[in-house]
Amino acid sequence: MDTIYCVQIYCTQSMADITSITGIILAGGKSTRIGANKPQLKIGESHLIDRVLDTLSQFTSSILIVTTEDQTSLVKSTAPSTRMVKDIYPGKGPLGGIYTGLMHADTSYSLVVGCDMPFLNSSLIKYLIDGASCFAAVAPKIGWMIQPLHAVYSKSCVPSIEALIREDQLQIIKLFDLVNTRYVTEKEIDQFDPDHLSFLNINTERDLLKAEVLIGSKTGAENVK
């Protein structure tokens, strides 16, 4: 049995600000429920993954797309600075994807999101990043629901993640019990995203329809202005 590491990060003056961050997009899912290649689904005029890239590009030019061996040819991006990396531990789900991204990241901290989140909120993301410097992980929490695929992770999480993977304990929330984690509360989230659209995933046709309706209503409101 492998040792599962607990990591505590203590804030020092040199850690007061995070000046650079890597964007990690997880795109290795099989998309079985929606029956289509999720990153290339179109919502409005844009592919789903390009909407995610547009938001992450506001914070960094270092963006990794983590995918599986068999998905590499299906995941395409129009962003020239984006780098595709394959799962180091295939078949280990999102936790394995986070591990792969952190191992390839050039920065101490990374923002991890799913490829199927069309309504990422830049202000909320900035809030997460700004609050990460004294922690190994920062994740939104609404009620009892933690959002691990809209979170900031430090490279210091790597030993704990690797130990969890080797033990085949693949629930990301188990990591938060092992590392110094800050939970961003619902009250904090509501300052930036009161409808919690940041956490809308496109998993089914119904989700896709909802996103298209929301984009249509947003576009209509902009045109009225």
Keywords:
225 residues, alpha/beta, Spore Coat Polysaccharide Biosynthesis Protein SpsA, Chain A, 10 strands, disordered C terminus
Please describe the topology of this protein.
Layout: E1 22-26, E2 42-43, E3 46-47, H1 48-56, E4 63-67, E5 82-86, H2 93-104, E6 109-114, H3 122-130, E7 137-142, E8 145-146, E9 150-154, H4 158-166, H5 172-176, E10 181-184, H6 186-190, H7 205-224
Parallel strand pairs: 1-4, 1-6, 4-5, 7-10
Antiparallel strand pairs: 2-3, 6-9, 7-8, 7-9
Account of the 3D structure:
The termini are far apart. The protein has helices at 48-56, 93-104, 122-130, 158-166, 172-176, 186-190, 205-224; strands at residues 22-26, 42-43, 46-47, 63-67, 82-86, 109-114, 137-142, 145-146, 150-154, 181-184. A hairpin with a 2-residue loop joins strand 7 (137-142) and strand 8 (145-146). Helix 2 (93-104) packs antiparallel against helix 4 (158-166). The chain has one domain (20-224): Spore Coat Polysaccharide Biosynthesis Protein SpsA, Chain A, CATH 3.90.550. The chain has seven helices and ten strands. The protein is of the alpha/beta class and 225 residues long. The strands form two sheets. Strands 1, 4, 5, 6, 7, 8, 9 and 10 form an eight-stranded mixed sheet that branches. It has a two-stranded antiparallel ribbon with strand order 2-3. It is globular and about 45 Å long. Helices cover 31% and strands 19% of the residues.
